[in-house]
Amino acid sequence: MSTSGVGRRGFLGYVGTAVAGAAAGVGGATLAGSSGRAEEPAAAPDTSSWAGRTIDPHGPHQPGVAATPAHVTELVALDLLPGTDRDALGRLMRVWTGDVEALTQGRPAPGDTAPWLATANADLTITVGAGPGAFGPRRLGAPPPGFGEVPPMRHDRLQERWNGGDLVLQVAGRDATTVAHAVRRLVADAAPFATLRWRQQGSWNGTGPQGQPVTGRNLFGQVDGSANPRPGTPLFDQTVWIPDGPWAGGTTLVVRRIRMDLDTWDELTRDEQEQSVGRRLDDGAPLSGGDELDDVDLRARSGGRLVVARDAHARRSHPGLNGGRRIFRKGANYVLDTDAGVESGLIFQSFQADLLDQFVPIQQTLDELDSLNEWTTAIGSATFAVLPGFEPGSWLGQSLLG
Amino acid sequence: MHRTTTRRTRRSALGALALAGALVLSACGEDTEPAEQSGSAATSGPEIVVTDPWVRATDGAEDTTMTAAFMDLANQGDEGVSLVSASSDVAGTVEIHEMANVDGKAVMQEAEDGVELKARGGQLLQPGGYHVMLMGLTEELAAGDEVELTLEFSDGSTQEITAPVKAFTEEEGQYHDHGSHDHGDDEKQGDEKHGNEDPEHP
Question: Closest approach of chain A CAs to the CA of B147, in angstroms?
């Protein structure tokens, strides 16, 4: 760190702001312990400002679905070995249940070969789902209503390496080391039953500079997810959770790996960028007015022209244009060095009670017309049914396999 | 305290422990920090809490007649106690073992005095350290199976625990090699591919 007067003053200016936020009891990264005068003793670090939470894995739903987006998310797909039948699948779920209960609480998984990496207060959630290959009489039985594959879209350029999978783990947490350790344990413990198919990692910043929760942005710089139903509301519940049957409390997940062409995006004027979505870049508010969380007014006109363009993403994905259909979306930004150069994009996760009746029609509307299609391309696609939650003493998938 | 632990209560007990900010697991086998029981009254005798038990799978192992159980034992009471024996329906013989240095070689042998759990102390049973040896197995143990174990302590108390069976990636050689055997087998099992654990990011 620079100790020159100028560098130091600038640095402390930021500290002052951050600590004010911490004093108000808001979480977030602060540089506690730095005082404005070198001769003063440093205060004890305010751990509340940087420690995350320990999230109870139990409940009617797997908590990773509705949880605030974590900083780091890994999506991991596995393929079942041919011999993994219903009985074996039940055994895998019991093993994973023990792992989930230990790791999310910061304890090593039983038999952990690197127990020092288990970390408490890491915002860690582990969410388990099953892909099309896990269903059928030999295995999980019937999928939930409306579960299936996403039909091909005109703009898709899918690569087999990012498609499909018989099982999925969504492992999300505060830091990539804790997340990677959890993934490593879960994959190792699945070895008798399933092999790794693909792994995708991305990041999301849902914390503002004063530690306040914010929606977060994708790599285009857009506030991304403003129209989401809010967890805990009736709208969220009816959008996301399967209401009844053996899958009650579960949901479905679509994972789309979306490549973004940042180079050509950066050639646009700010106005063109905002028109393509129908929202302002600085705060995510609809171009039709109001604040970020206000609804987009699709009828608003200015000088006879629609304020939110006919092909704007916010219009094309709006429930008003899709028979009231909604999804709950989460993102994870990625940058990957590939043989073909640097690839940037978004690991897009869509949760909905009925995949074929919610996600697919909305996606078809967007495939038909969406200004953003010029800069975004789906290069991977996979669908999963997310298991219902589990209570202490029971295990993941018990209602289906028990 | 005498506690009979079924799977259900074991899991709830764990939940409570975790919430109490409980066990700092020591992965090196030295005494573990006792769990702080905030607000609990002083206990009189030993009070043993078993956390995260597991049994090594025999599926695909070279010797399927024996395996071992591991767990974390914490004594939250004010008096020391020892784990002196154990039994299970799946094993003809169950012994408490320790790793000892014999002629410069690490070998497993029966722990004469069991596993000592000091007052407010504990001990991690783990591969390469103290463990519960299950011999003369009556069935093959596959990952995800569950094994019922009865632990017996020096104060006469017993605890029933349910331990999940897990595949283990470490080479099995030393835990199945009683020093009396002459094969120091280091071959990896077919299902122990390390390649799955840490794939290079594509």
Answer: 13
